[in-house]
Amino acid sequence: MNIALKNQDIGLFSESASERQVEVNFAIRLMRYVRGLTVAQIHRLVNSGEFNEIFPALDDEATRVPPRRFEDLKPFDYRNWAERNRIKE
Amino acid sequence: MPGKHINRLETRSGTFIDAIIIEGGLDEARYWHQNVQRPYIASSPNFRLDRNWNWPRLVRWLNTVELLAGRNTAFFQINVNTSLGSAFPVGQIFVSDGYPFFPDQRQPSIFLWFLAAAPADALRAGGLPDDLKLMRPLVDAAIQFSFQRGYDGRLTLHAAASGDRRNDIDLYTKYEKGVALIPYGKRSFLISWLRRNDGRYFYADEKCALDLTAKLDYLR
């Protein structure tokens, strides 16, 4: 199964093939569990904080992110998003 | 103007502030977590449905879950210009691309999974007016994405229940009256195969999306 994350800077799986396989298997099991839930149940998990226990932090959430200049921000670019997500128009 | 995002926000007192809709990633989720979520939402004395949300994990993991279900996702953040020229995030949404549209499940829609607006004390701390109108602009970001995606503005969402009746009615009313989305009601017991309808789903069809778009055209 070839899984490549396409969203912006959200790399999830390790580069090591063996580690990646473990992570992918875990993600598939997790997906089956989550897909068995209704939207309302997923919302309850998130609202209660249980989601944070099921889904661990994969990086340091405390690493400070510096503020940015407003003028440096780029507005959402749909074409760029569509290209990265391999959308066929 | 369908497909064009807003570039300013209005306060309840009728003033305007420059704004921008950006696509977020983990850095934006983390910035929110550190500067809005932890100091102002998690410790808020008032009821907040998002008190326990962790955006870095939501963005990372829900993206994976949706991707494995064959759907793309997008994370949008509204940033405004502070008096010092720095960007401050005042709200954000996480959406899924291609969720079945409730009234006609053969049609794809954008599903609005999560929406959060910065509380007034976070806005004040950022040197911003604390009466920014945020709910409609946040839903509008999802609707404009739907137009861009070629879904004619079709949007679906579920108003999450907190278990507290008053707060649940309040959120339902915000979507129904405040934003003017269409309640799906209880008219079908099953949203889709084995997906129970708890009566808290909303949608926008093309007409509704165009109406909502027109109402915010003065901010584009």
- What can be said about the biggest beta sheet of chain B? 8 strands, mixed
Strand order of the largest sheet of chain B: 1-2-3-4-5-6-10-7
H/E element order of chain A: HHHH
Task: Characterize the biggest β-sheet of chain A.
Answer: none
Radius of gyration of chain B, taken over Cα atoms and rounded to an integer in Å: 17 Å
Q: How much helix is in the residues of chain A?
A: 40-55%
Work out the helix count of chain A.
4
Shape of chain A: extended
Structural class call of chain B reads alpha+beta
Percent of residues in beta strands of chain A = under 5%
Question: Using DSSP, what is the number of strands of chain A?
Answer: 0
Q: What oligomeric assembly is this protein in?
A: heterodimer
Query: Which residues of chain B form runs of ≥5 with pLDDT under 50?
Result: none
The helical percent of chain B reads 25-40%
What is the succession of H and E elements of chain B?
A: EEHHEEEHHEHEEEEH
- Describe the global form of chain B: globular
Class derived from helix and strand content of chain A: mainly alpha
Give the averaged pLDDT of chain B, no decimals. Answer: 92
Distance between the termini of chain B: 8 Å
* Terminal CA distance of chain A: 25 Å
